[in-house]
Amino acid sequence: MYSLVNYNDLKFKIENINKAKLGFLPTKLHKLDNLSQKYGVNIYIKRDDLIGFSTFGGNKIRKLEYLFGDILAQEAKYVFTYGATQSNHAMQTAIACRKYGLKPILYLVDVLNEEIDFPRANMLLDEIMEAEIKVIEMTEGEEEFDAMYRAKEESRKYAEEIAEKESDYYLIPPGGASPIGTIGFINGYLEMKEQEFNQNINITDIFHPTGTGGTLGGLTAAHEYLNDDINIHGINVSHKDNSYLDEVAELANNALEVLGIESNVQREDIKVDNNYVGEGYEIPSNAANNAIKIFAKNEGIFLDPVYTGKAASALLDYIEKGKIEEGANVLFWHTGGTTGLFAEPKMLGNLLD
Ligand SMILES: *Cc1c(COP(=O)(O)O)cnc(C)c1O
């Protein structure tokens, strides 16, 4: 049993942090009856794909609520962020900017390296909102991480050029994975605990896709502070090196520190599975495509090829391999991203084969 004292303490401390209201929270948590029956495990889903306030929300909205709390307090005018050309995070940042009358400036790395004749999916939405877009082409042999670094350098220069004073602009890191953004998922964890209690379920496992690690960092921070016993499985959607667990642990500790809580989350407290990335970020995998079809055909719920499809492929594989105990109550945290289904065909691979 987790600590109710710490639950209340955390809730109270979060309420004192600046927040902009973006999502329609709490998002629904409900059972997937057909998949539960088919796989013999109770499968629940957390619907951050329906988070609002736009049609196209997702997990970044939780982080942006606290980031925009900070941005509005600072009275910034320009908001910079970074991602791939089909970044869900960049698109959701633009949505938040437009709601609050701020200017979104997006540095988008062309990971897909495809001729863009007419923008699709998130990039189309970015264009409709008239976000200022800087496409960063990757140079021969360059890693995505290095291109992102280049983008950050360029953006800093540009920010100084257009701003009259430093507080006029705000740089949101890729994925919104700053300590303040991460608080969104500490709050998300508390939201989930309340639903678990009200619905009288005992959740044993959480599966979700992990990218920049803000989601995992927030969930882990709350999990550790509550001393909860749920197994959190972060399913990697891009290749990471050995320092990833340290970065997520640091993010968890730094987010708790913003709340005035001293903590010591360690890399050993975090479970990440690298086996479902496939060839790489934004590269489709057969297993993910299969999972997309299984969720759609059995539940009428749509996943995406880059994130949730890969995480769901892990969930289904764990169940098939008997790695999930009988009678377990597994929560699939749907983080959004379904605009990916309407992105460049390259991102979908053989989905329709
Ligand atoms: C960004 C994103 C993730 C990963 O979240 P991180 O906090 O960056 O790890 C998962 N799913 C979707 C749909 C996303 O857009």
Describe this structure in words.
The protein is of the alpha/beta class and 353 residues long. 42% of the residues lie in helices and 15% in strands. It contains eleven helices and ten strands. A six-stranded mixed β-sheet has the order 1-2-10-7-8-9, sandwiched between helices. The protein has a four-stranded parallel β-sheet with strand order 5-4-3-6, with helices on both faces. Strand 7, helix 8 (214-226) and strand 8 (231-236) form a beta-alpha-beta unit. Helix 8 (214-226) crosses helix 9 (244-258) and helix 10 crosses helix 11. The model has no long low-confidence stretch (mean pLDDT 96). The site of pyridoxal-5'-phosphate has 20 residues, from helix 4, strand 7 and helix 8.
**Total beta strand runs:** 10
The outline comes out as globular
Percent in strands: 5-15%
Mean pLDDT: 96
Biggest sheet: strand arrangement: 1-2-10-7-8-9
**List of distinct ligands in this structure:** pyridoxal-5'-phosphate
Q: Specify the number of helices.
A: 11
- Largest sheet report: 6 strands, mixed
- Give helix % range: 40-55%
Report the span from N to C terminus.
Answer: 47 Å
Query: Radius of gyration, Cα only, in angstroms?
Result: 19 Å
Low-confidence stretches: none
Query: Which structural category do the helix and sheet elements fall into?
Result: alpha/beta
Q: Could you give the order of the helices and strands? A: HEHEHEHEHEHEHEHEHEHHE
Quick rundown:
The chain has 353 residues and is of the alpha/beta class.
Features:
single chain, 353 residues, alpha/beta, six-stranded mixed sheet, four-stranded parallel sheet, 11 helices, globular, binds pyridoxal-5'-phosphate
